[in-house]
Design brief:
This protein is 29% helix and 19% strand. By secondary structure, it is of the alpha/beta class.
Length: 342
């Protein structure tokens, strides 16, 4: 039996990754399904995926599974076979990444949670199974062109900042946990309109569509498979692409280019840029957009203060991290305060 948790540091993980002699596929999937014993399910799944050298992040709960993982191409057929052997995961729709840079994940992490997607709502406040109409890319494009359609991005602000569908409503939120009531306020006068919801892979649309239907919205639709599968479909079928910019992803790549349009700007100098990075000062780790010039100027950090800390000896950095001088909670994800631009 394999160890049930990763026990290696980042340097060792990167070394092992670079020594691999095979290519990988980055995929995502989710399903709302009853898992009676998620702890036991987690342990057996961890062993199976470790045998197949799968890396990535999986969340399990009694309500289902939500996964973003990297699978070795030589093991992909066996991986699908293993999924199909589990009734909860059989015939799982898999979303294949738009781009494959190789460094999407360095370790396997499977966590048991109360929910596979935290929505900040009481479990009994709405019926999560009463979801909207699922649309293919072709159907989505057709409905986008209708005069009464309202296109809604149910992702976070830092995702829609680098790429979104043309004319979409993009809520200014940091997390999905705070999004549903804000979305309702934005759309409460549109209950008779055709609402078109989209997100990265589809899971956030499941809960959002159910929430809006519970609130009295008459015609709620969602992009099946999210942006990831939309891009696959438009490429396979030669359809018009109505998404502009980059699709933010929650792995080490932090983005997949859908079109060459750069619709965002560097948070430090305001020049065009769509490259998300995490501040290299580990006590900060702020997610923000940084151009190549500022990356050199600030050593990949969000400000001069963090650059100074990052360039200290590692032991001194560790001492500072134990104190209160710099903490990630001092910053807001994806937002640079004016003082940090200096």
């Amino acid at each position: 039996m394999a160890d049930l948790h990763n026990k290696y540091g980042k340097e060792e993980l990167l070394k092992r990754f670079n020594e691999e002699e095979f290519e990988r596929k980055t995929i995502s999937f989710y399903r709302y399904v009853i898992i009676n014993d998620p702890v036991s399910f987690r342990d057996s799944l961890y062993n199976e995926l470790t045998e197949l050298s799968v890396l990535g992040r999986i969340y399990l709960a009694k309500e289902g599974v939500n996964a973003q993982i990297s699978v070795p191409k030589p093991n992909f057929v066996e991986f699908v076979k293993r999924l199909n052997q589990r009734s909860e995961l059989s015939n799982m729709p898999l979303k294949i990444a738009v781009e494959e840079s190789g460094h999407s994940f360095l370790k396997l992490k499977i966590k048991v949670r109360n929910k596979i997607l935290a929505d900040g709502m009481d479990d009994n406040s709405y019926d999560v199974t009463n979801v909207g109409t699922h649309l293919t890319a072709k159907e989505w494009n057709e409905k986008m062109d209708l005069p009464d359609s309202v296109v809604v991005d149910v992702r976070n602000h830092y995702e829609s900042e680098v790429g979104h569908f043309q004319g979409a409503v993009c809520p200014d939120v940091d997390t999905f946990r705070e999004e549903l009531p804000i979305l309702y306020d934005l759309l409460k006068d549109k209950k008779e309109n055709k609402v078109l919801l989209y997100c990265t892979g589809g899971i956030r649309c499941e809960k959002t569509s159910a929430f809006l239907k519970d609130k009295g919205f008459k015609d709620v639709n969602q992009l099946h498979g999210g942006i990831i599968d939309y891009v696959r479909q438009i490429n396979d079928e030669g359809l018009e692409n109505k998404f502009i910019g980059k699709n933010f992803v929650f792995d080490d790549r932090l983005g997949e280019e859908v079109t060459s349009d750069i619709i965002s700007e560097c948070h430090q100098c305001s020049e065009p840029s769509n490259t998300h990075v995490n501040c290299r000062n580990d006590a900060c780790h702020l997610l923000f957009i940084q151009c190549e010039v500022c990356a050199l100027k600030y050593d990949g950090c969000c400000c001069s203060e963090c650059k100074s800390i990052f360039n200290l000896p590692l032991e001194k950095q560790k001492v500072l991290r134990k104190g209160d001088k710099v903490k990630a909670s001092n910053y807001s994800k994806g937002r640079i305060r004016p003082k940090l631009k200096k």
